[in-house]
Amino acid sequence: MRALQRMRSPAAAAAALLLAALLMTPLARLHASEAVRPVEVPPHERVTLDNGAVLLLTERRDVPLLAFTALLRGGAMSDPQDALGVSSVLAGLLEKGAGERDALEFARTVASVGGSIQTSAATDSIAVSGSFLARDAQLMVELLADMLQRPRLEPAEFAALRDRRIEFIRAAKDSDLASLTPIYGAAALFGAHPYGRPVNGGEASLAALKHDDVKRHYREHMGADRLIVSVAGDFETSQMQRLLRSAFSGWRKARSPAPEAAAPQPTGGPRVLLIDAPDSVQSYFWVGAPGVARADPRRAALDVVNTLFGGRFTSMLNNELRVRTGLSYGAGSRFDRLAAGGHWQMTSFTQTPKTIEAIDLALATLDKLHTGAFEPAALESSRNYVLGQFPLGFETASQWALQLAALELYGLDRSYIEGYAPALQAVSIQDARRVVDQVFPRSDQTTLVVIGAASQIRDGLRKYGPVTEMKLSAPVFHAPQR
Description:
The chain is an alpha+beta fold. The chain is built from 19 helices and 14 strands.
């Protein structure tokens, strides 16, 4: 990557920051209640079939479109230790032929009506989503039912997909190291906990994966009792319910119960994982710590503080690493929240000779969050930024289908959406200080992951904690056990 070579001069960067601040000023001056409309969950019907499948039906007659999200509980959490990535491969195969249609015919059928279908896997679920014209509702349900209940899982498609996934990882190691730091980071932070598993697997686990492993995983972990189908768009609820009941009421239950994870335990102190990329002219670093669960009641205050710290261009972290010092082209932080917990992370990159300086500054900025005072104007600006961004996730039928499916997956009610803006508006300086003390780590409570030229940065990294080292060429994301 050549991002640092394209970096603006400090003066130009400062000018850009000033311009961004000026453009944002009108919003920052508005009171939160004036800057954003409240988000209300639309009327919808929830139906549970006898086999455990949950249907969520939301009529939206503004445009003649339908959108759906189907979630199956499980995901990478259900992957066996000797078959990491199997859920992701299975998800990819679902759209490679189903029912009477092979992969080519399936794709042609979707395209012939202007529809779209995508599949993916996450730590806690497999997702199928798509959109169609309202007139093609019956075809949409037929295709979804075939994908979930009658996937072809053909050996040739499996081999091609598995090999392509391996090549994607190798390509990232050649040209996109930044995309790998969160994977190494989660593995280093959580270890053997299910949240540490690479969702898409690693080179070794994928290479060892057999076609029978995927078929077995389908039988054990796909079934109606794991299924949530959320449909939003231009339809009559009674008619859509009949279509879905007819399509899914006869599906069997999964042979295994859905996996549940215990809350991850806090790490015992600072640790460093160094991944040696000897030819890299830059170092990519990830700093992480255990975070909070999706349902944590401190969500609003945490989001306001994280936005202030590293969640937007004008954040403390980006200002220090990019604007003021020019050490990086960008830096940010975020929370990843799952059912039983999650993690907080900050990420950036810099030129190899500047590695220790950049990490020092990132960690010092994190500690400043604990020792510095919150200015009311800065907190208000951060709150208004979050308030302004929040409604953008609830504008289309596709977004509502996804949002309602996610509420169901995590056992949350409508107040998770409708109560968020009022909670943001109520965040005080005391609330912000409290969540910093309770949730945000100090620098000596973090796990540090660095991908870079080990010979040049190894000695400097030792001051952050015990260093474990592995090679970028290793076909796994977990460091070997000592």
